[in-house]
# Entry
Amino acid sequence: MAEMIAPTGDTAATAIERTAIAAETVGPPPTERIGALRWMRRNLFNSPFNSVLTLLALGLITYWGIGFFEWGILNAVWYTKDSNVCRQATGACWAVIVEKHRPMLFGLYPYEEHWRLVIALVVYLGTVSATLAPPFWKKQILVPMWIVSLAVMGTLMWGGIFGLTYVDASDWGGLPLTMVLFTGTLIFGFPIAILLALGRRSRLPAVKAISVTLIESMRGVPLITILFVAVNVFPLFLPEGMDINKMLRVVIGMAIFFACYQAEVIRGGLQAIPRGQYEAAEALGLSYWRMTYKIILPQALRICLPGIVNHIIAAFKNTSFVLIIGLFDILTATTSVMQDPLWRRYFVEAYLFVAAVYFIFCFALSKYSHQVERWLNEGRRF
Amino acid sequence: MAASDISRKSDTSIFNSLAVRGVVYQVLLALAVGFIGWYLYYNANANLERQGIATGFSFLNEAAGFGIGESIIPYDAAQSYGRALLVGILNTLHVAVVGIVLATILGVVMGIARVSSNWLISKLASAYVEVCRNIPVVLHVIFWASVIRNLPSPRQALSPFTGVFITNRGLTYPIPVANPVYPWMGLALLIGIVGAIILAKWAGRRRELTGQYLPTFWPGLGLILGLPLIVWLAGGAPLEWSVPALRGFNYRGGASMTPEFAALLVGITVYTGAYIAEIVRAGIQSVPHGQVEAARAIGLRPGLVMRLVVLPQALRVIVPPTTSQYLSLTKNSSLGVLIGYPDLVNVGNTTLNQTGQAVEAIAIMMVVYLSISLTISLIMNVYNRVVAIKER
# Structure
């Protein structure tokens, strides 16, 4: 009965007004139906089972929260150059991150030149952020922007001109290497993915067969085996005397692996395009490639954008697999820093730091993907 | 005049025909693929000959000469590479099967928790999902490996329950001592399950014919649990536990899980569980609320609403993506190579380094994983066909 009078979601002000009106006729509403109490009753204690669960969870949160607070903040060592200070403390040793953040973030890159990597990372993150913003989604902006920033980053990382000392690619490491692997995977992987997706939907049996075979066999094996092929087997297939840089081989391997998963997502988008679109484009006399480029792909990629972003996130996480073949990405760099006998007992702090780096990047991208989905659904309402 | 021009043009150029062009493109593509394949094969042959490496799989019969930490089948270093690889395959399957079971349980619990009406529980579950999904599985695995390596030694073992010991040598737990009655109990369980299925089918058919409802859940459960229990009691109720005890530097008795297995298992389970939780949440939310309301309106009890209306519809959404999670868990079990768990990739990698047969060793790994993937997707496709909408 009372349930029906008060609509849900009333603010405190209207509730008080209503209280005043209701007091004359049916008396004041029960207090637990206002504000925080009502919310708790609805969301935490709405059944005996839920009440027990809530209390249990609260207990665990308090217990672990206090434990973590004592370990991570109260008894933690924030800054010291001496690992013995950490040994005596009962809490976390965040000093390991302060002390070792340079080799963890930048790997084997010459210590005095780290500023170049910092600038390169800033340029990179700036370019990525700009790419994600819809106003920049124009070919005339995106392509020159990426060419310029890749050139700037390349110059900074390799050096050798403008008075910068030359640093060989085999000395690259840490977060910048993770970014290089990630960006390389996307740049090589995307065109392959689109070709494979189109190939799988092709009317020509040979094209279709080749695409299906490649996609299904790549999706059936672990990334590690692809990396083994890139590192151990691929050099055997090259003519004598020819050599391709190991990092490039690994990037191409990861790109093909990424492309095969992405191709399936794009194929989903292609299948969602109504037949009429193809027929209309053909009736206009467009050639296959013009039709694909101008009519089909823009719509298909729009439809499957959330799926595409999911696989981009996966590609970022997959860069960590290079630990197995000894490329110095941020995870490999951290693992090797943790070999230091003085600091290695503080591996939890160090891995938490790396986990935070991955988490921030991936979480931001997945939130962004939700936002994109919302934009797309807005368009569909009209 | 103009019309005859056009017709003449289309007569002369056969390349304007889509069919002809299609054939030409395909022939060109096939030639290109063939040529690249031949060129790579030729180079590989030349390179291998120069390095003095024999091709072929005859190395599989040679003695491996390396030990393997854990194995389901008997193995020692004097046995062949083929045997060693088989041990690796079985270890991969072992960790994958246990991982799939645990990740499913974790994922379903967390997925249901995410749609819980309890705000706190749903927030905790989504924190788990977001954190574990957004951290690479490689980091999960090496983190847990480091944690286990830094656990106390057997003398200062952690013991959360009596008889269970967690140390840097792995997890040790009590198991019942083998008894001739146990296999019979297994058979009784099997008979119970078959009996329960037959009972449910029969009751369902009877209900459709006569409209009479027969309870099948409790009798079925009674069959499944009761038959083994009767066998157990008839066999004299044998219950003797093998409890681990500290002898020297490690525990004896009970069963144990090696630290590598435990680290890999925890890592891939926690990671995949987060993905399965998301799939389960999406599946439950995909069932329109009207379905639940309609089911309640025709008088179904809450349990039956879940079992007859919500779950069958949610499963259709849940099963296909879960299959691919099972596959990716199996593939991620190859991270064993990082932490020293002797899975297929680890054994294959050792073989590769010892024999130099890179192409063959990697080909074996790929073929095995492909077969596992195809088998799992085949099984799940059959299951999917069972739960799919039956259109009449």
In short: The two ends of chain A are 40 Å apart (CA to CA).
